Sequence to fold (510 residues):
Amino acid sequence: MGDSTISSPSYDKKKSSWGLLKSSSSSSLSSISSKFSVATASILLFFLFLCTLVLTRWSDISTLAGNSIPYTTSMFSKPYKTYPKRDQYLLTCKSSNMTLTCPSNYPPTTNLDSFSNNETCPEYFKWIHEDLSTWKEQGITKELVDSLQDTAHFRLTIVNGTTYVKHYQKAFQTRDVYTLWGILQLLKLYPGRLPDLDLMFQCHDPALIKKRKYKRGGAPPQFHYCGDDSTLDILFPDWSFWGWPEISIKPWVPFAKDLKDGNKIKEWSARENYAFWRGNLNTGHRKRLKHCNSIEKWGTQLVQQNWGKEMRDGFKNSDLTKQCLHRYKIYMEGNAWSVSEKYILACDSMTLIVNPVYYDFFTRSLIPMKHYWPVNTNNVCKSIKFAVDWGNNNTVKAQKIGKEGSEYIFNKLKMEHVYDYMFHVLNEYGKLFKYKPTVPEGAEELCSERFACSPPGLETKYKAEATVTGPSDRGPCVLPSPYDRDTLQSIRDRNAKIKEVVEMWERGSG
Fold:
């Protein structure tokens, strides 16, 4: 709203209007009216001044939002946040000051007495204990953390409530940026709750800390997005929960809402009765999938993603929220696990997961034939075809599997669960330290203000959408106790047995 839109009547016109009103009064009140007109005119002058001031401030705010990151727009439009709206973390970024310094009182603390929550965390939180079990007895030393400087992308340190980061190498795209942004939002949600920490984070696809190399102990504690049975990496939520601007994927809160809306485009029974997959067919085991691209022969449609064209078109043709149009969706790993798994599972379609090697922080509690259909890696095309035929002959059961998968995502992977998982894994990690963390040489203080305001475009927009605007009035959910050895083995045996049964069905079908 520019200044040209702020037009107010002049004082003379107001005075003239009042004169007409005064002249219509009886002569017996002329003396009182004369005195009253002077007083009223004074009040009107003050009122006009106040209006001009307010409108000018509104104009300033509009100009600010137009010239920089729209942090202030959340005050005027309905936000996607599920957290209490407060003033503590309101960021104001001006085009003349796109790199701000960290406030001296950042972050503020909250009332420790109100820090409680009776809700138990989802079951997949139990895996936190398993991921940290390597260091349960030996603890974590500075030497172990220091040894990761050649593989880590950044080192995050929290000392006396202040956060510092030291970069070692640039991660692919903005993985490191949004991972750090997510951690900063956690610290704003639960300010002053975490102990002093010192951790190394690796942002590439595969997990790197191999068990075979550390059979006698001494494994370094490295945080990462995924793991597998041969590695010891500590799992952490991936960057895309706070946005993936390179491929126009919004932060998880608004994106999950869009996915729910996308599920309503086509009822399950009206969806295409074959399996669908879209992505890069030239990575990892996906090359095997290439041979399955036939709706008539294998009940499968595959679309090779043209990344260059999609980037130019703003990913309008590959919008994940508009791809819930098939009864069956395929998930298959590339170089490692893929962030696409949560988007595919959320589609209400029966997800066909080609037997995965890797897992992320929430997928280890998925149950085959409950949340997804397991596909045999060795006979991918035949296995997918059998799943599609079975689903079309058992539509009620197939639809139920699809619904169970999406409900798992929407109910067990809410953003508050993501933050609570981060809190618990970092808090439990902090309990294992054998030394007091100090600020590494060359590290810089980190806060939202440090890099919230640049660069312009989707990167800043997503940061704004994923900003926690105030500390929580409650604590995180209650961390469940770890699995005992027998229970853990029974879970693995159950999942393996279910997959064996499905493979037996496939062999029996000829």
